[in-house]
Write a structure and sequence with these properties.
There is one protein chain. The chain is built from 10 helices and 14 strands. It has helices spanning about 45-55, 75-80, 95-105, 115-120, 135-150, 165-180, 195, 215-220, 235-240, 270-284; strands spanning about 10-20, 20-30, 35-40, 60-65, 70, 80-85, 155-160, 185-190, 200-205, 210-215, 225-230, 245, 250-255, 265.
């Protein structure tokens, strides 16, 4: 029997406590060469999780390992093998990209100049431009070019498509799929679930600091159905409901797949599942 592949990222019992929020015992592992979508509404704890994983904040409990290496004991080696990209990342807005790259290059002994040039060309980036002259989508591509030029095997992306127009988001999704084809592992935090339906292999659903689901994209979607009704929700449907939403022509109701045929339910999108489960939590 073959041995299990080493996970690019494994998180066990991650906890972070703030006065008004608690990240509770979050555990998961990533499979090499896959795209994992990390979903949840704003304030669910996605960025807190990522910041704790990357030691931007000190977690109050739990353990994190990258490629089987303890994060605290092998930080330098790990940094060579991962790349972090966030929609909130900022650079010196008036410095030319080539000057920024010169600084970044000094931090990575394994910097691959040929790979950098190839990525810049593929992404349509010009070194003579400044970050102030780039669109938000191009800024994300520049951050990716830097991360991939030092050989990052794992990319951790925090809301990378937030604030982008649909065309720019589509372009980035295609980039993520190409990275997967190259064997890279992508961990992709977002509340824009339609992007994930185009590229994710697996879904982690964080709700109010707790990991509500950890499943394949297909498995997560297949567990739920949407029933629609034009008038008042029937009692039997209300009893089976896991969240109800008012829509233009009546109501949509999330129900488990088992027994959903009785209500003439249809398949649910990732966004519908998340919204209805959040409605259920709000009404609890």
């Amino acid at each position: 029997m073959g041995s299990e592949k080493v996970s690019p990222l494994e998180v066990r019992g991650l906890t972070k406590v703030y006065p008004v929020f608690k990240l509770e015992e979050v555990s998961f592992r990533l499979e090499p060469g896959t795209i994992t979508g990390f979903i949840g509404r704003n304030g669910a704890g996605k960025t807190t999780t990522i910041n704790s994983i990357l030691s931007f904040v000190r977690p109050d409990g739990g353990a994190v390992s990258f490629f089987g290496l303890n994060a605290a004991e092998h930080s330098r080696e790990i940094l060579e093998r991962i790349g972090f990209v966030s929609a909130g990342m900022t650079y010196y807005t008036r410095k030319k990209l080539k000057k920024i790259t010169e600084v970044v290059r000094t931090f990575y002994p394994g910097w691959d100049e040929q790979a950098y040039r190839a990525r810049m060309s593929a992404f349509g980036l010009e070194e003579e431009k400044t970050p102030a002259e780039l669109s938000n989508g191009m800024k994300i591509k520049y951050a990716l070019a830097l991360a991939l030029s030092h050989g990052a095997e794992l990319l951790i992306l925090d809301e990378p498509t937030s604030g982008l127009d649909p065309v720019s988001r589509e372009e980035l999704v295609e980039v993520f799929l190409k990275l997967k084809d190259e064997g890279k592992t992508v961990f992709f935090s977002t509340h824009i679930t339609s992007d994930l339906e185009k590229c994710a292999d697996r879904i982690l659903f964080l709700q109010r600091g707790k990991l509500r689901a950890d499943d394949t994209l297909d498995g997560f979607r297949d567990a739920w159905r949407i029933a629609e009704c034009a008038a008042e929700i029937p009692q039997a449907l209300r009893e089976a409901a896991r969240g109800c939403c008012r829509v233009r022509d009546g109501y949509t109701v999330l129900v488990p797949k088992e027994g959903a045929e009785a209500f003439g339910a249809r398949e649910a999108s990732l966004e519908e599942i998340m919204i209805h489960l959040e409605k259920e939590a709000d009404e609890a």
